[in-house]
Design goal:
Blueprint: H1 3-26, H2 33-41, H3 55-63, H4 76-87, H5 93-96, E1 102-106, H6 116-120, E2 126-127, E3 135-136, H7 146-150, E4 156-160, H8 162-165
Antiparallel strand pairs: 1-4, 2-3
Helix pairs in contact: 2-3, 2-4
Domain 4Fe-4S ferredoxin-type: 102-131, 132-161
Keywords: 4Fe-4S, Electron transport, Iron, Iron-sulfur, Membrane, Metal-binding, Repeat, Translocase, Transport
Protein name: Electron transport complex subunit RnfB
């Protein structure tokens, strides 16, 4: 074999890699660091309940002031407070009195195991197999409702997230 033929492919690959690295630096688009911070806080389930197709677009809209910090129903009040603090925007009075976070549960009498909900859940909070009863992992469920919209049996119902249902709060410190 000819040495030129053997070395031509690695040299070509190296040249292409170098050209791509220069192009990446030249055409790089600087992103606002606040957008990255917002996006890290959002659940990133792409449920669309905020009115936008995904959490990335919602983060950009929040940084531009087009969406308020309470626009994400799956995030609940805790996320709204974090976003309010990050964006230095006060929560509206409506946001402060919102109901407790909701999750879904499946009515075992109605579930026929069609797996439509299982496939639609962006958080993998639904467990089950084809033609078997499904269940919802309430620790993971965000209450986005995507499973509710595809269920042909209307087997879903919203309930208060069990974490918040007992009025749970951090205990007050005891002073000695």
């Amino acid at each position: 074999m000819d040495i030129v033929a053997i070395l031509s492919l690695p040299l070509l690959a190296t040249a292409m890699g170098f050209a791509l690295s220069i192009a990446a630096r030249f055409f790089a688009v600087a992103q606002d660091p606040i957008v990255d911070s917002i996006n890290e806080l959002l659940p990133n389930g792409q449920c669309g309940q905020c009115g936008l197709p995904g959490c990335g677009q919602a983060a950009i809209a929040m940084s531009e002031g087009k969406l308020g910090p309470d626009c994400c129903p799956p995030g609940g009040q805790a996320l709204a407070q974090k976003l309010s603090k990050l964006l230095n925007v006060p929560l509206s009075n409506d946001a402060e009195t919102k109901s407790l976070p909701q999750v879904v549960e499946i009515d075992p009498e109605r579930c026929d195991g069609c797996t439509r909900c299982f496939k639609k859940c962006p958080f993998d909070a639904i467990v089950g197999a084809n033609k078997q009863l499904h269940g919802v992992l309430s620790d993971i469920c965000t209450g986005c409702g995507m499973c509710v919209s595809v269920c042909p049996q209307d087997a879903f119902a919203y309930k208060t997230d069990p974490i918040f249902s007992n009025g749970w709060a951090w205990p007050k410190p005891e002073l000695h």
